[in-house]
Structure formats: structure tokens, C-alpha cells
Amino acid sequence: MSDKLETTPGQGIRLYRDLADWYQLLTPVEDYAEEAAFYRRLFETHCQLPPRTLLDLGSGGGHNAAYLKATLACTLVDLEPAMLTLNRQLNPECEHILGDMRSIRLGRTFDNVLVHDAVSYMTTRADLASTIATAFAHTAPGGVAMFDPDYVSGTFEPGTGSGGSDGKGRALRFFEWRWISDTGKEMYVTDMAFLLRDEAGAVEVIHDRHVMGLFPRTVWLDMIAAAGFEPIAIPFEHSSHTESGHELFLGLRRIPGRRI
Ligand SMILES: C[S@@+](CC[C@H](N)C(=O)[O-])C[C@H]1O[C@@H](n2cnc3c(N)ncnc32)[C@H](O)[C@@H]1O
């Protein structure tokens, strides 16, 4: 990878490390109610058994889990300790585990496996295949894995966005800029600028680079099938997706001979 596509050397993605404490002002929990309800319906529709357990790989601040935990016992995995700390505060009744979605093996299975937007951080086909293999290893027979990348290559459009919210005495606003470099690699960049205003009114400006994977939908479907799942693409129009024609992917781990 050329230097210009790397996250800040030695710092990784700052939003999930030293800036994690600001995360809830970037993406408030309330914004997840609608999509979590949609995910729950899909899990319930496609599972061959009534779903009771969920593994969330790359669970971040636990904003989907905050809703899904009402009917599912949730196990929440993330690569960054600071995000798990945040997640524990929001979802103390859930199980939290530090781990990498590409390699973690818990030695047990779940009715549902969710790999939400965090799967967008898989920037090579090898990493994507490893993550899908992790999902398969943890999906019970009759269960469903769900993958919801921010973009696939056919629908990606460069663009910008902005947002943020106010907290107790402090506030965050951000600007994001999505673009594709000329490296020829299957990835795009989201450069984020944060304005962080503290209790005293002082404002700090921070740049944080996120390098994300961008693969054709056929690659997604082929890899989900190659892992052992039956793949399905589901249309999903939601305010969090700026492009039209957004789809998420399901991997069904069928019990042979059994209908839903
Ligand atoms: C946008 S957040 C996820 C938010 C989450 N979907 C929710 O419902 O709140 C992305 C998360 O992916 C995590 N992540 C990135 N790469 C990962 C990996 N290889 N394994 C596990 N987690 C990873 C980051 O640490 C970050 O917490």
C-alpha cells in the first residue's frame, strides 16, 4: 500500500483509540433503532430455529447490540480495548471479548452472527475471506450470518458528509470525505475531520484516516458461498447509506432437509 493510504502511523484509527470517548457524539445510539429492528426481522425470518444468541464481530460502541439484546443474548467482540470499555458501559449485561474478526475462535456457535459496518475495514480479499470463515465457524446449523459493508464497488460514489451532536458540556462536529485513490487496489479512503469542543469552549481539530475495502457484490456472494453458507443479497435503503441500491448480505447455514 502506498504511504498516502495508511492510517496515521503508530496511532491506528484514532476514533477507536484515544478519541473513543467522543464516539457517542459522532454516532448517537438513537440513530440505530431502525436498522437494528430491520436486522432483527431478517434474523428471525431466515433462521431455521428461533434465534436466541448473537455474536457481533467488530461491535464498536455496541449501538446495534443496545437494541438487539432485548431478544438475543449478545457476545460482543472488538479489536480495540477503548471501544470495548465504551461498549461495556452501554451494554453491561452482555459478554465482551477482545479479538480480531479475522482470526478469533471462541469454540462455540451462535444462532446469529452480525458483521456490521466494521467489515468495511477488511481491505484485502484474504482478510475478507478470513472474516467470513470466522463467521461460518461461529454460526450454528440453522443459523444466519449477516454482513453489512458500507459500500460495494458497483454502488460506491465519492462524496462528503457531515454531522455530530452535543453532549454534556461538550460537542463534536465532523466532516467526512470519501474518495478512491489511483493505487488500483480494492479500497477507498474516508478522511474525517473532527471538531472537538470541550467544557471550557476550546476547540481541537483532528484528522483521522480510515482505509476501507471495496469489493464487487459477486465477490461477496462467492466468498460467502465458498465458506459454506447459502448466500443472499437483501436490498436495504436506510438514511445511514448515502448511495442508492445498498444491499446487505446474508449467509444461511442450512440444516439439510429442514425448512424454515
Ligand atoms: C464503526 S465501529 C462499529 C459500530 C457497531 N457496528 C455498532 O453497532 O456500534 C467499527 C469497529 O470495528 C472495529 N474493528 C475494526 N477492525 C476490526 C477487526 N479486524 N476485528 C475486530 N474489530 C475490528 C473497530 O475497532 C471499531 O470499534
In short:
The protein has 260 residues and is of the alpha/beta class. It contains six helices and eleven strands. It folds into two domains: 3-16 and 23-153 and 215-252, Rossmann fold; 159-212, S-adenosyl-L-methionine-dependent methyltransferases.
Could you characterize the architecture of this molecule?
- The chain is built from six helices and eleven strands.
- It is an alpha/beta fold and 260 residues long.
- The chain has two domains: 3-16 and 23-153 and 215-252, 3-Layer(aba) Sandwich (Rossmann fold), CATH 3.40.50; 159-212, Single Sheet (S-adenosyl-L-methionine-dependent methyltransferases).
- The strands form two sheets. Strands 3-2-1-4-5-11-10 form a seven-stranded mixed β-sheet, sandwiched between helices.
- The radius of gyration is 18 Å and the shape is globular.
- The protein binds S-adenosylmethionine.
- CATH superfamily of the largest domain, please? Vaccinia Virus protein VP39
Name the CATH architecture of the largest domain. Answer: 3-Layer(aba) Sandwich
- Sheet with most strands: strand arrangement: 3-2-1-4-5-11-10
Radius of gyration: 18 Å
Which structural class do the helices and strands define? Answer: alpha/beta
Beta strand count: 11
The major sheet is characterized as: 7 strands, mixed
Question: What name is given to the CATH topology of the largest domain?
Answer: Rossmann fold
Q: List the domain count as a whole number.
A: 2
Helix content: 10-25%
pLDDT averaged residue by residue = 94
- Strand-and-helix sequence, N→C? HHEHEHEEHEEEEEHEE
Helix count from the secondary structure assignment: 6
The amount of beta strand, in percent, is 25-35%
Which CATH C-level class of the largest domain is it? Answer: Alpha Beta
- Distance, first to last CA: 45 Å
Which regions are unreliable across 5 or more consecutive residues at pLDDT < 50? none
Q: Which geometry do the CA atoms define? A: globular
List each distinct ligand once. S-adenosylmethionine
